[in-house]
Model the fold of this input.
Amino acid sequence: MNTTVKAAALRHPEKRNRPDNPIQRKPAWIRVKAPTSPVYRETRDIVRENGLHTVCEEAGCPNIGECWAKKHATFMIMGDTCTRACAFCNVATGTPMPLDPMEPVNIGSAAAKLGLEHIVITSVDRDDLDDGGAAHFAEVIARIREFAPGTTVEILTPDFKDKPGAPEVVAEAKPDVFNHNLETVPRLYPTIRPGARYFTSLELLHRAKKLDPNVFTKSGLMVGLGESREEVHQVMDDLRAADVDFLTIGQYLQPTPKHAAIDRFVTPEEFEAYASAARGKGFLMVAATPLTRSSYHADADFARLRDARAALTGRAAKAR
Done:
């Protein structure tokens, strides 16, 4: 076992017995340059100084260089250890530490120091907590409003294990965007997302919109795991039935040989076809490219979301 694979196995003890799936060479359209800019280093230093975790690092996001160079980072709250073991995810699995009571303040302070116009907050799954971490999300949102009142807040939540009252607690904190990723098609849940349930995730998104009709709801899919085009289109229909506003679709990239293998690299032309189909189904916004991730270009996308809603409202008013 080489050093990289050995480190991955130690980091993910639940994956030690999984068979090795050799990592395929990426096609030209999905390769990115290593981060080098001074602003990237400045963002990294602020993250370190505040003792924060980012999904950019923990999940090995390919866009970290571009995003951090623009002072855009997705902060991961409630620790760096997840209670689940999804086959696609590179975040460590195990028994998490207790919540850090200073984390909401540190996140708010970092948002102010970075001068963020838009911030994305995500988390590990915390099935060990009575509310799945909903109250902690609400406290983080409150502290961002306190320290950086001009910053809009996007949350990317777990499913809270369908714990009663969790969506209500988060909705009451009034995030600007409520994101929860379906990740893949229902057929692949048992192998790719075994700790989750497809319709529980759909209902969470629908519940978020019903609790606050003004919040933008958002969800994302990975492709290249063996799903069919028809299955992706069905997920689009399910999301629209749940009144989801914004859909992101990106290429799955295998983090280590112990993770789920890539079935294939979806071509840019196929992503364009998915985007066209999604727009035709009525999403306010669609982002579908090989490198698309949930929080990629989230600040600019939020501005476009507001513009799209305003345009839709204007057309509805004229029709009356």
Remarks:
- The longest helix spans residues 298-319.
- The domain at 3-20+30-319 is CATH 3.20.20.70 (TIM Barrel).
